[in-house]
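[Discussion] Sanity-checking designs against the backbone

I'm trying to build intuition for which residues belong where. Below is a structure token string of 312 positions. I'd appreciate it if someone posts a full sequence so I can compare it with mine line by line.
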């Protein structure tokens, strides 16, 4: 674990993470590091409700709109670039504030995730073709006993993956999995948890507001730039599939809007569940949107009084 201080803001979509991040950055001399995978693409600003330059209020932001719509970007890529950026922010005597709802990106950035330096090599695995399932399992047990105990001997696919991981990285997969739950940088975690009914209402309002701002036209243009294909990573953003279905005449505009609202509600629920299961020591704040400003002030006070930022 590195002796670096990082504030992490988590919460479901439409919970106010962006607004809070600006307040924290202004109070604690911080810079914001986006960890929402959808906002890394340039050209879908409305679809992702991306913070505008004016809304940034002079606070420096990282990892916004730096990818072309047809680009691919891995979690491993983000881990390397994100950690380097955190070091640069700290070197400038500022506080890194990580903001976003993409759980795997957050974990890769701040936990001890190790990614294989090599891709899958199925040709190399051919050497095990003559091994029975039992023989293959016994071979895994020699190099990674803990992993073998989690896998049934007839689950050949998982056994091969564990063996391949060991051969490529020279460490057991079970060791890597265990380390992934330890912190590379221990953050101060702020969790925003709006009232459920209010959150659902806010999500529906947001979809309508984005539609009024030109969401359908933006997605139509992005779809053309992606060669009319939904296979690109950028096209996985909520709204793209629904609007493309409308453009193809498969559903009405109203049906597309309703589908986007539903998809966002499902996504918000998944985010909350994921964060609660994956992250510990979260300072959760349940609130009504009417009291959001009061909650933000309490969060600032709690962070000051926690002594996290002054601890060595």
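Best answer:
Here's mine. Compare freely.
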């Amino acid at each position: 674990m590195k002796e670096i201080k990082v504030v992490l803001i988590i919460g479901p979509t439409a919970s106010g993470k962006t607004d809070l991040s600006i307040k924290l950055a202004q109070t604690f001399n911080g810079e914001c590091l986006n960890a929402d995978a959808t906002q890394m693409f340039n050209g879908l600003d409305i679809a992702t409700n991306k913070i505008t330059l004016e809304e940034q209020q002079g606070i420096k932001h990282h990892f916004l709109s730096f990818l072309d719509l047809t680009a691919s970007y891995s979690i491993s890529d983000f881990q390397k670039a994100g950690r380097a950026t955190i070091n640069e922010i700290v070197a400038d005597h500022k506080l890194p504030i990580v903001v976003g709802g993409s759980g795997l990106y957050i974990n890769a950035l701040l936990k001890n995730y190790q990614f294989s330096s090599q891709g899958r090599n199925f040709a190399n695995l051919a050497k095990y073709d003559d091994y029975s399932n039992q023989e293959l399992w016994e071979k895994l047990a020699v190099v990674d006993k803990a992993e073998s105990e989690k896998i049934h001997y007839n689950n050949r696919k998982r056994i091969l993956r564990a063996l391949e991981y060991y051969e490529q990285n020279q460490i057991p997969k079970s060791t890597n999995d265990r380390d992934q739950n330890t912190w590379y940088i221990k953050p101060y975690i702020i969790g925003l948890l709006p009232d459920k009914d209010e959150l659902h209402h806010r999500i529906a309002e947001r979809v309508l507001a984005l539609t009024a701002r030109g969401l359908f036209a933006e997605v139509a243009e992005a779809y053309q730039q992606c060669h009319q294909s939904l296979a690109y990573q950028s096209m996985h953003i909520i709204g793209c599939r629904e609007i493309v279905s409308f453009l193809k005449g498969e559903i009405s505009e109203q049906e597309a809007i309703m589908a986007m609202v539903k998809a966002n509600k499902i996504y918000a629920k998944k985010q909350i569940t994921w964060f609660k299961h994956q992250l510990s020591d979260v300072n959760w704040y349940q609130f009504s949107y009417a009291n959001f400003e009061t909650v933000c002030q309490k969060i600032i006070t709690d962070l000051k009084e926690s002594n996290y930022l002054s601890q060595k």
